[in-house]
Amino acid sequence: METKRYTVNQIEQAAAALNAGELVSFPTETVYGLGADATNPAAVKKVYAAKGRPSDNPLIVHVASVETVEHYAVTSNPAFRQLVKAFWPGSLTIILPLKHGAFDAVVTGGLKTAAFRMPDNQVTLSLIKAAGVPIVGPSANTSGKPSPTLADHVLHDLTGKIAGVIDDGPTGVGLESTVIDLSVATPVILRPGVVTQEAIERVIGPIMTNKHKVGAAETPKAPGMKYKHYAPNAQVYIVANPDDFDAAIDWASQQAVPFGVMAVDTILEKQAKVRFKDQFSLGESVVTASQHLFEGLRYFDLNPEVKLILVQGFAKEGVGLAYMNRLEKSAGQKYFSKQQAD
């Protein structure tokens, strides 16, 4: 299959491909999504096949209007209206109970709920409207790998497997959306994102964060809860304390493998690049680091010599909570400690 790179002026062509049951990757403010007609089970099955995604990992349904959500889901919870008013279009995914027969089980993972989001990207909102159907949209990458923040990332993973990708340049946020479950008595954040718990609580009052680990026999209610995610080819080690980078680089230098460093500019400027194979700048703060985390991990995938990556950690607060959620998964929870270097 030829995979086309659509421009933002070729939305009608991309919509026609979706209506024909094909897969089209689309840009959002978070990461690039892999789109299929949510009302076409055969098309949705192609999403799982193209990504190599486990079939019990439910998909997020992208919409261009609140009315579409109302057509498929039970929206009587007052928190739904409050959150939509505050955060849509935007980086918040909302899980709701479904009306009977709303979607095929291939969309929901067999659950009686579904996750909905209205992305903050005019190109994709126009695509959904042109297609005339809601669109499922997991990240447009091979399952388990870092999410795509550029059309080139999508093409690297999925060329020959999808009809095309709409190239709208780099995504602005760089991390997937916050997921909140409104199908339970007390709303629960199942996946952190740039829409923080504090911001949500200012709108709807106290909520909970998920502490439950999904078992092997369970179906997760949201993406990112059960399976390995965001892993580059090289082993990642998190450097939690910026002051430990000298010790971490000394330790990595003794591992007899080429290694790279991902950190903010102030840290990289202090290091002699000759000590490591390559580097990737995370900008100047946790905000820019979040925007470029996946891009950096993919950057090192293009350098197969690099077998180990030291990546800067941040405090688990605000956007840092979402950043660390992704980074810990990419590292398999591996942290550098000074005890390793001793």
Automatic annotation (TrEMBL):
UniProt similarity note: Belongs to the SUA5 family.
Keywords: ATP-binding, Cytoplasm, Nucleotide-binding, Nucleotidyltransferase, Transferase, tRNA processing
Presence of keyword Acetylation: no
Molecular function GO terms recorded: ATP binding; double-stranded RNA binding; L-threonylcarbamoyladenylate synthase; tRNA binding
BP term (GO), one: regulation of translational fidelity
Recorded GO CC terms: cytoplasm
Protein name: Threonylcarbamoyl-AMP synthase
Domain YrdC-like: 8-195
Annotated residues for binding of L-threonine: 30, 62, 117, 177
E.C. code: 2.7.7.87
Alphabetical list of NCBIfam families matching this protein: L-threonylcarbamoyladenylate synthase
Enzyme class at the top of the EC tree: transferase
Cellular compartment(s): Cytoplasm
Any matching Pfam family: Sua5_yciO_yrdC
InterPro entries: DHBP_synth_RibB-like_a/b_dom, Sua5-like_dom, Sua5/YwlC_C, Sua5_C, T(6)A37_SUA5, TC-AMP_synthase_SUA5
Binding site for ATP: 53, 57, 113, 139, 147, 191, 230
Role this protein plays: Required for the formation of a threonylcarbamoyl group on adenosine at position 37 (t(6)A37) in tRNAs that read codons beginning with adenine.
Major location category of this protein: cytoplasm
Catalytic activity: L-threonine + hydrogencarbonate + ATP = L-threonylcarbamoyladenylate + diphosphate + H2O
